[in-house]
Design a protein that fits this description.
This protein is mostly helical and 378 residues long. It has 16 helices and two strands. A two-stranded antiparallel sheet has the order 1-2. A hairpin with a 4-residue loop joins β1 and β2. It is globular and about 75 Å long. It starts with a helix and ends with a helix.
Length: 378
């Protein structure tokens, strides 16, 4: 009797969308790791096991606890923008929109947050607000094109990505903001220490890593808030209803055009938070670039690897960053450290098959249910 009950509980769990999403994400990750390991074997078979182990260990590679703690903090700091970009894609997707403009929104927020810090010397919270509002406006612009001009949001976003990139290049190419000898922006700590995100003692938990700030807990809080808004509020229901069928939403009395614009604005704001909560740690400076930051496109993969679930996105964002940083520790006598980026890319590519894996799991659970019914009929 207990066995049948346990089997029923497992089948019920396996039929849930959350279970399918988690298993699909694990399959994608395993495919990426397996293919990466095969490539390592082809390049240099004797050292392949050690290399893949190093990539997967990341901060655990170090023997001293203090070093492990420091580099765990480093991984968490660099996971923040990836997670928030993933949340940006997720939020728009839940409302039936594909926000491929995260890169441009991210760029605009970088420019505003750095200008606010380096030129205006504003406090950190004001820098974050201004950057978030600027990115929200950039996202809303794509939403306006979609709602009132019936322009596909993908086309609008791609156009705005490049405009945003070049505007920031022009803005930052200034002797007030950029060190011309290094071709990168000045350190915020040197010009406006009040613009740096507060640490609130969190850095002490990671061997005094100066880049660990409140950005890490804030990211988790934002993920939880998004989950609540989308699943537990009328506003979230209206956004999802508009995404499923904007004509039906309009017939039901919902403001479908407003919902499209506000969805893209919120998605843009999340991309803005990604940029400001990262660059205001002073861990990285802006360099004149000829390509849109990959962070925006990586956010698409993180959203799908996380099963389009906010908590799943947090885990997926950390995982991708974990193996990317782990790749920098492999023995460069035998391998290029970019092998970790290759594994990440394979995982990202495998994310395109998440729906396929979910369908396979769904068919398997359906078959299990039918077999159970057949047994009960006998």
């Amino acid at each position: 009797m207990m066995n049948n009950k346990s089997k029923f509980s497992f089948n019920k769990l396996a039929s849930s969308e959350q279970f399918k999403a988690i298993v699909s994400a694990i399959i994608c990750a395993l495919i990426g790791i397996l293919v990466g390991f095969i490539i390592l074997l082809i390049i240099n078979a004797p050292n392949a096991p050690k290399a893949i182990s190093t990539i997967l260990k990341n901060f655990m590679y170090y023997k001293k606890p203090a070093m492990r703690s420091y580099y765990l903090g480093q991984t968490l700091v660099k996971s923040v923008p990836l997670i928030l970009c993933g949340l940006s894609v997720l939020f728009a997707y839940k409302a039936g929109l594909f926000n491929i403009g995260v890169g441009g929104q991210y760029c605009v927020a970088i420019g505003i947050s750095l200008w606010s810090a380096l030129v205006w010397n504003l406090p950190w919270w004001l820098c974050v607000i201004l950057a978030t509002l600027a990115a929200a406006a950039w996202g809303a612009l794509a939403g306006l094109f979609k709602a009132f001009c019936n322009m596909n949001e993908v086309i609008a976003c791609i156009m705005l990505n490049w405009i945003g990139l070049y505007l920031v290049n022009v803005l930052m190419q200034n002797p007030v903001t950029m060190d011309q000898t290094k071709s990168e922006t000045f350190k915020i700590a040197a010009l406006s220490s009040q613009s740096l995100l507060p640490k609130m003692g969190l850095n002490k938990l990671f061997n005094n890593n100066q880049y660990v700030t409140i950005a890490i807990p804030l990211t988790i809080i934002i993920a939880v808030v998004i989950m609540i808004v989308l699943n537990k509020t009328t506003f979230g229901y209206e956004l999802r209803a508009t995404g499923l069928n904007k004509n039906a939403a309009k017939y039901a009395g919902m403001k479908e055009k407003f919902n499209i614009v506000i969805t893209m604005a919120i998605a843009g704001a999340l991309a803005g938070l990604a940029a400001s909560l990262y660059y205001l740690t002073d861990i990285q400076q802006w360099k004149t670039s000829s390509s849109v930051p990959a962070m925006g496109f990586s956010g698409i993969a993180v959203a799908f690897l996380g099963g389009l679930n906010p908590i799943g996105v947090v885990i997926a964002g950390y995982f991708i960053q974990h193996i990317s940083l782990g790749g920098s520790l492999i023995d460069m006598r035998y391998y290029n450290p970019q092998i970790a980026d290759l594994i990440s890319s394979i995982i990202i590519y495998a994310c395109g098959f998440v729906l396929f894996f979910k369908e396979l799991i769904g068919k398997w659970t359906s078959r299990q249910k039918n077999e159970k019914k057949a047994e009960e009929g006998k």
